[in-house]
Q: What sequence folds into this?
């Protein structure tokens, strides 16, 4: 067994919140630079160049790359040999509270009916998975509303099959247009049930853009979908062009014989995600 102090978790979460807001991962930087090389539209190229300049300034000045610093999403893998000296959820929320306050990040979380802001960007949304070992892995993504609001979930009939799945993804991106601030990353969750498909889609967004899906069939589907989305001509920030999506990531799991859930979770060009292992 291994003891981990919640104080350590608070400190690490605080850092994750601040660094994710100001510093894009190398995978996203490379994807945007590659998009700039491929884009043929003069306006699209200009927009991509400005997006790249924006993240460079944000990193250099330690300032948020977008005013929407998001609602805090966590996927936590906790080894069954780990012993904590407090509640994991409390530690994560305290880390968010400190990170958003100390990093001067916009607090965007409010009551859904009264719309009263909680004032500290909590509560966070936390997904916990118990695994083997004595480590604690925390993956974090601050999710902005512009892209989140363009997401979709459909309960298809099994007979609609692969073509039905593709239609759900293409229709969601087409309907979103420039609203989710493309070039986007598209997470797709297939199977499970209503809520499981949405979680699969969300979690897929945390996969690095330069990491290929290990399932060859899914890797092919991701490539086909990305090509079809880029053929829509929405382009960078919706101004037209070849590059609408930087990548499509697909996660699947088994489902009931009578249903085919499909969720589409869209992420903007500021594909912010960080992780730490304790």
A:
């Amino acid at each position: 067994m291994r003891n981990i102090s919640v104080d350590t978790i608070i400190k690490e979460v605080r850092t994750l919140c601040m660094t994710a807001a100001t510093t894009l991962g190398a995978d996203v930087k490379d994807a945007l630079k590659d998009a700039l090389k491929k884009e043929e539209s003069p306006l699209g190229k200009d927009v991509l160049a400005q997006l790249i300049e924006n993240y460079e300034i944000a990193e250099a000045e330690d300032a948020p790359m977008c005013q929407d610093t998001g609602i805090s999403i966590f996927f936590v893998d906790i080894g069954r040999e780990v012993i904590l000296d407090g509640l994991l959820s409390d530690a994560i929320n305290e880390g968010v509270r400190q990170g958003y306050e100390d990093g001067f990040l916009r607090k965007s979380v409010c009551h859904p009916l009264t719309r009263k802001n909680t004032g500290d960007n909590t509560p966070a949304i936390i997904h916990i998975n118990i695994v083997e070992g004595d480590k604690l892995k925390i993956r974090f993504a601050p999710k902005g509303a512009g892209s989140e609001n363009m997401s979709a979930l459909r309960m298809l009939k099994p007979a609609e099959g692969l073509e039905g799945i593709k239609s759900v993804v293409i229709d969601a991106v087409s309907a979103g247009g420039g609203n989710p601030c493309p070039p986007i990353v598209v997470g797709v969750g297939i199977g499970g049930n209503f809520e499981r498909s949405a979680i699969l889609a969300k979690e897929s967004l945390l996969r690095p853009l330069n990491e290929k899906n290990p399932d060859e069939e899914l890797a092919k589907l991701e490539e086909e979908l990305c090509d079809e989305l880029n053929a829509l001509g929405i382009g960078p920030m919706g101004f037209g062009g070849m590059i609408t999506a930087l990548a499509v990531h697909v996660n699947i799991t088994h489902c009931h014989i009578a249903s085919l859930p499909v969720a589409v979770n869209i992420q903007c060009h500021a594909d912010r995600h960080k992780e730490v292992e304790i």
